[in-house]
Design goal:
- This protein has 2 domains: 15-253, Aspartate Aminotransferase, domain 2; 256-355, Alpha-Beta Complex (Aspartate Aminotransferase, domain 1), CATH 3.90.1150.
- 35% of the residues lie in helices and 17% in strands.
- It has helices at residues 15-26, 43-59, 74-86, 101-110, 223-228, 238-253, 256-277, 305-314, 339-355; strands spanning 4-5, 66-71, 93-98, 115-121, 142-146, 148-149, 154-155, 165-169, 186-190, 201-206, 281-283, 294-299, 317-318, 329-332.
- The strands form 4 sheets. A 7-stranded mixed β-sheet has the order 2-10-9-8-5-3-4, with helices on both faces. It has a 3-stranded antiparallel β-sheet with strand order 11-12-14, covered by helices on one side. Strands 1-13 form a two-stranded parallel ribbon.
- 46% of the residues are buried.
- It binds pyridoxal-5'-phosphate (PLP).
Length: 356
């Protein structure tokens, strides 16, 4: 039987998607060729890229004036690309909210290109909360934040208000909840958390913000070049784009983002209720900032973690170990994780309490 997969990333994908992807690896579109051995410029693959972009536009209600790209290099390359395209060559300045490991890395890259103002940081309490009430300098070229902190299990619930350009790393919560794309100027997300296999990064960019940095941008780092070439400037990650497209089709069939958001909320409620009820565990994130995607929790002092580890493994659960910077446990509940898997985890936590 398939495991209950709580892995933080790469992570669970819908079984029907894995089935179709396996088939396409052997024989794609009845071509008697594999998906990964045909030209990315063949009409069959161009149709995949078009459908992936169109599904993203439809599922997120992306308004006119935005482009959707599928690039390589992960979110980590976006840490560089975003400031390269948006931070002015002369007197460039960007504002960042520091809410964890990924924000910290994004800040480090931006600092290579100009002045970075860290408007607030939650490092003082190991990134267990989202800072609020900070102010964003109005002369910054853009403001950047991470909407969901995969490692620390926090998320930014309200879209920040700013008169600067707004840039967001949505790697671990894109397509998990409704967003108003018009509030943003640039959104990026590595595929491997909620969309597909590692290898593709989705970028949603407002066309009119480009071409104003005054920088000589290396070709691969230039969003405009990728827009002009329709994500085919160089060979795209064909397998990752294909599987992402299948996952977006699956999401559409399930009723889209609004429907999955309800399920995600129900899954998170179920688990957090147990974390709060069970005397052997405690959640690490501030309650109002808790992520619906990644729930982090610690065993209370004296809890027999060897027994708990044995029990969840025996129940067919995978990927529950916390990240080393938090410790304890982290349950990642991405779109494809069924609520039944969360119930299995809750049952194990209750049985653990009884046996302790
Ligand atoms: C995983 C993750 C990243 C890093 O993504 P890569 O694709 O490995 O570069 C960045 N930001 C967030 C929020 C993540 O969850």
């Amino acid at each position: 039987m398939k495991k209950h997969n709580f892995s933080a990333g790469p992570c669970i994908l819908p079984p029907s998607v894995l089935q179709q992807a396996s088939q396409a690896l052997l024989n794609f579109d009845d071509l008697n060729l594999s998906l990964i051995e045909i030209s990315h410029r063949s009409k069959n693959f161009v149709a995949v890229m078009d459908e992936a972009q169109n599904l993203a536009k439809e599922l997120l209600n992306i308004p006119a004036g935005y482009s959707v790209l599928f690039l390589q290099g992960g979110a980590s390359l976006q840490f560089v690309m975003a400031p390269f395209n948006l931070m002015k060559q002369e007197g460039g300045k960007a504002a960042y909210l520091n809410t964890g490991t990924w924000s910290t890395k994004a800040i480090k890259e931006a600092k290579r290109l100009g002045e970075v103002v860290e408007v607030a940081s939650s490092k003082d309490r190991n990134f267990s909360y989202i800072p609020k009430g900070y102010s964003i300098p109005s002369d910054a070229d853009f403001f950047h934040y991470t909407s969901n902190n995969t490692i620390f299990g926090t998320s930014v619930k309200a879209t920040p208000q700013t008169n600067t350009l707004l840039v967001c790393d949505m790697s671990s919560d894109i397509f998990s909840r409704e967003i108003n794309v018009a509030d943003f100027d640039l959104i990026y997300a590595g595929a491997q958390k909620n969309m597909g296999p590692a290898g593709a990064t989705m970028v949603i960019v407002k066309d009119e913000i480009l071409g104003k940095s005054g920088r000589d941008i290396p070709a691969y780092l230039d969003y405009q070049i990728h827009i002009d070439k329709d994500s085919m400037f160089n060979t795209p990650p064909v397998f990752s784009v294909y599987v992402s497209m299948l996952t977006l089709r699956w999401l559409k069939e399930k009723g889209g983002v609004a429907a999955i958001a309800k399920e995600n909320e129900a899954k998170a409620d179920l688990l957090y209720q147990e974390i709060d009820r069970n005397p052997l565990f405690e959640g690490t994130a501030a309650v109002e900032d808790r992520s619906f995607m990644n729930a982090c929790f610690l065993p209370k002092e004296g809890a027999n973690t060897d027994l708990f580890d044995e029990m969840w493994k025996a129940a067919g659960i995978n990927g529950l170990n916390g990240h080393r910077s938090v410790g304890g446990y982290r349950a990642s509940m991405y779109n494809a994780l069924p609520i039944e898997s969360v119930q299995v985890l809750v049952d194990v936590m209750q049985e653990f309490e009884e046996r302790s």
